Amino acid sequence: MSRLTLLPALDTDLLARCLQVRRAVFVLEKGVPESLEVDDSDRLGTSCLHFLIQVDGADAGALRCQSDGSSAVRIQRLCMKARYRGGGWGKAALAEVERHCLANGADRIVLDAKFDVCGFYEACGYRRVSSVFLEANVPHVRMEKALTI
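Request: output the structure for the sequence above.
Response:
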């Protein structure tokens, strides 16, 4: 049976591996300009906590959680390498992140989803809370989910 592991990027090696996964998915596969994909939050010591998603020990995905000191956490840059999509790994990783956030005092997750993947987030219990807007010239919608025990 395959196993998913969520590793917080607390050192430069794990952060670099998160950024490698994101580059493979967003820049190389999806054509997002690197200047838009990487920002000032992509380093240690910021308000973002990065996570490396592993499946059976292989680097399969990444995401980051941004905290502003409130009880809400913003999930950003969630991605899975192509071979890990469609098998429930993204949903499992999101559930793990939600448990982590809840255990650390968050009561709500917010995110800006690309419009074409809203269905994925809705299947994970998120609801749309905005109309469609453009971010990096891509249609997005804001979504959120209340966290409960």
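Strands lie at 4-8, 48-55, 58-67, 72-80, 108-114, 127-128, 133-135, 138-146.
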